[in-house]
Amino acid sequence: MPEELQEKITNYEHITGMSKLARRYFVMNTFDGTLTIFGVLLGSFLAGITSPGTIVTLGLGAGAAIFISGVWGTYLSESAERTKARRDLEQKMLKSLEKTKISEADKFATCYVSLINGLSPLFAILVILIPFFSSSAGFLDMGLAYYFSFLIWLLIFVFLGVFLGKLSKENIAISAMKTFMVGVVCAITIYLISAITGSSPGA
Known about the structure:
By secondary structure, the chain is an all-alpha fold. The protein contains seven helices and no strands. It has one domain (3-192). Helices cover 86% and strands 0% of the residues. Helix 2 (18-47) packs antiparallel against helix 3, helix 2 (18-47) runs parallel beside helix 7 (172-197) and helix 3 (52-93) packs antiparallel against helix 5 (130-136).
């Protein structure tokens, strides 16, 4: 990275504190994306879907939706919040802050956290779908694709738990167990839905 650009980003960080916000968005939306694709996969598994192309389509559709929602929703909300804060500051200073470093930093931070918000769940979804891409190409059995995807999902969830545990200086095992239990609750809920709707295996 050019030194001038690095210095500019460092200044933006000092002004906006965007890295902390981006980190929260990264964890929160990776969590959302991982849980979303888990729901898609488990629901498809219980419904007996055996076409990898169908799973890929469903997964990419979910990924596209969560990406667009994440980027656009965050951009609108962050832009509005930062504009309001800047205008409040302008009233106190009795001067315009347009075309200043503060304005530049706000715009950069808004775009930065918006991309983090959209890309983090999309990336998680794409990683979890890798076995189904392989299955579509004929390199992996469909049954194994499901199990490998569930394994990747579990590893990502454990990683998030460990990351949050280190961040909060909490017991890592307890933190990982907390995230895992969310997955268990999600799995039970989806299984009950499939049983009620008659789409579970053997129904």
